[in-house]
Write a structure and sequence with these properties.
The chain has about 180 residues and is α+β, with helices and mostly antiparallel strands. It is built from four helices and four strands.
Length: about 180
């Protein structure tokens, strides 16, 4: 009885694997190979400098995270696209005690981005992305500052994932264009 059940499950799994390519399913982040146009297009994006003033450091972190994600597995390709990103950083009190002491902040990053063809400067895609995180305020100013910077780093990492996914989706949708 058990052996029959196992055989039936294996047969179903094998049948499912045989049908899967026919439905058009194709993972965007599949292991890159020579024919993976999406991965090659993502790796051909040059990410311009991000952020000025107070946002400069978080912009550097976001840019480095994006470069890592866009070139993962295929390495840098010849530049064909340029990505310009503007970011806005904001913090808001999340938890306030009855004596008006803030004990937790919410940190948000909002990115507005434009993907252009490097040769023609034609806008190929534009969009916005948002990410947020929170951190506790403790008695030690240093510990609070470190918590804020760690949260900013995590938020930048999350934002880079969102932007990379949106760009991958753009290339998938415009594959034949």
């Amino acid at each position: 009885m058990r052996r029959d059940r196992r055989s039936a499950l294996l047969l179903l799994a094998g049948g499912g694997m045989a049908v899967l390519p026919g439905c058009g399913f194709e993972p965007i982040h599949a292991r890159p190979h020579a024919e993976n146009a999406v991965a090659r297009n993502l790796a051909a994006i040059r990410v311009a400098g991000i952020g000025e003033g107070r946002e400069r450091r978080i912009g550097q972190i976001l840019r480095n995270e994006l470069i890592d994600r866009l070139t993962a597995g295929v390495g840098r390709q010849a530049e064909r696209y340029t990505l310009a990103i503007d970011i806005e950083r904001s913090t808001a009190a999340l938890q306030v005690q009855t004596n008006d002491t803030v004990t937790r902040y919410n940190l948000s990053l909002r990115a507005t981005f434009v993907l252009r063809d490097s040769q023609t400067e034609e806008v190929l895609h534009d969009g916005t992305a948002h990410a947020s995180g929170s951190y506790d305020v403790v008695e030690s100013e240093y510990a609070t500052l470190v918590a804020e910077e760690n949260t900013a780093r995590e938020v930048a990492r999350d934002l880079s994932n969102t932007i990379a996914n949106l760009l991958a989706l753009h290339f998938v949708r415009n594959r034949d264009a």
